[in-house]
Amino acid sequence: MSFSSQSFSPEIVRALTECGYEKLTPIQQQAIPHARRGQDILANAQTGTGKTAAFSLPIIQQICDNPKQRNRFNVRALILAPTRELAAQIAKNIEDYTKYVSLNVAAIYGGTKMSSQEKKLEQGLDILVATPGRLLEHMELNNVSLANLEFLVFDEADRMLDMGFISDIRMIMSDIRTQPQTMLFSATFSSQMNKLSNELLRKPKRISVSPENATAETVAHVVYPVDEDRKRELLSELIGKKNWKQVLVFVNYKETANELVKELKLDGIKAVLCHGDKAQSARRRALDEFKEGKARVMVATEVAARGLDIQGLPHVVNYDMPFLAEDYVHRIGRTGRAGQEGHAVSFVSREEELTLLQVEKLIKQRIRRIQLAGYEPANRDALLQKMHTKSAFKDRSGRTNNPTDQSDAERRARLRRAVLNKSKITKLKK
C-alpha cells in the first residue's frame, strides 16, 4: 500500500519519496486511516516500525487542509516525547515530511537555551515537539499557549511514566481547554498505562501491530553468563574476536559508563559516552561520531534507549541488565529496525538471573545462553536451581511502572513555579 493511496497531497508524497518511503508499514496501514478520520488512537508498536509517520502525517495533512493564521505563542499540534533525543528525532522527521508545504515546526527540550526556544514559540507554531519538563517551564513563563490545541500525541508514553512525568502530564492537560484529537503510542503496556489512556482518550481506536511487550522478529537474542568483574574483559574480547564494527552498550549507571569508556580506550577501542551528565551538544557530537563510524562503541545509560535512530545498527549489548524488564524491549529496539537483522547481547551475572527470568517472561521466549570458555561464572548452579524450583523466587514480580509520588512531584512543580515567578518579577522591576 502506497502513501499516495491515503490521499496525501502531492507535496507530502514527494517529500516522503525523497525520504525513501515507498510502502506503508503495518502500524501506518492501521493507524493512518483512523487518524485521518479524527479518531483518538491507542497504539501498541515497537520502536523502528514507522510510528512517527503514522501519527504525524495525518496531522500534517489536516493542518494543510485547514490553514489558519499563526498567532503569537499559539500551538495547533503538540507531540510529547520523554527524552531530548526522541524529541529532536521526531522534529527532524516532520521537517523532512513538510519540506514542500508551509508548516512551522519546532522542538523544545532541556540542554538548550530557553531564549532561543522562546523566539521560535513567539512566532506561533503549527507543530511543537516537546519534552514535558521543558514545556512546563515555557508554559509557566507564558511562552506557549495550548488554548487552541487541535492535536495531541504522546510518543513512548510508557517511558514518560517510567521517568516520573505523570504529574507533569496532568499539569499540561489542566491547561488544555479544547478537546484535541489525542493519540497515544507505546511499545509496552501496564496497568498504569491503561489508567492513563482512560484519562486521556475518548473512545479510542486500539491498534496493535505485534503482541504487547514483544520484540522485533528480526532481532536475535543471546545471553553470556559472566561474573560481574569479568564483563569488561568479555566485551573487549567479543568486539575484537567477532570484529564488531558498531556496538551500542547499555549500562545502568553514569559512573559505570565513564569507567567503561576509559577501559575500552585502553584496549584500543574508540568509544564515546551518552548519559544525563553530558551536555546536549556533547551527546549529539557523540552520536554523530558513532553514526559516522569514527567511534566503534557508544556507551549509554537509559537516557539513550529512546529516540536514537541509527540506521543498520547491528549490535546492542546489555552490559548491565535493565532495572525494569520492559526497558529490555526499548534498549534492543535500537537494532533490527526497518526489517534489518540485529543482535541483542546480554551479559548476566549471578545477581541478574532474576531480571533475566522476568525479561523472558515478558517477551515470552527463552533466550539462548552461550558460555564462552574462560569466562565461566563461579558458583552458579546452586543459585539457578534455587531460582527455578522455589516459588518464592520463580513467582517473584519485578519492578513495575510505579506511579510517581504525586504530592512530592507537585511540591517540586510549585517550587519551580515560585522560582520562575520570582524571575518574572525581577524582569519587570528592571
UniProtKB/TrEMBL annotation:
A motif (Q motif) lies at residues 1-29. Gene3D superfamilies: P-loop containing nucleotide triphosphate hydrolases. Residues 390-410 are annotated as: Disordered. Keywords: ATP-binding, Helicase, Hydrolase, Nucleotide-binding. GO terms for cellular component: cytosol. It comes from the Bacteria. This is DEAD/DEAH box helicase.
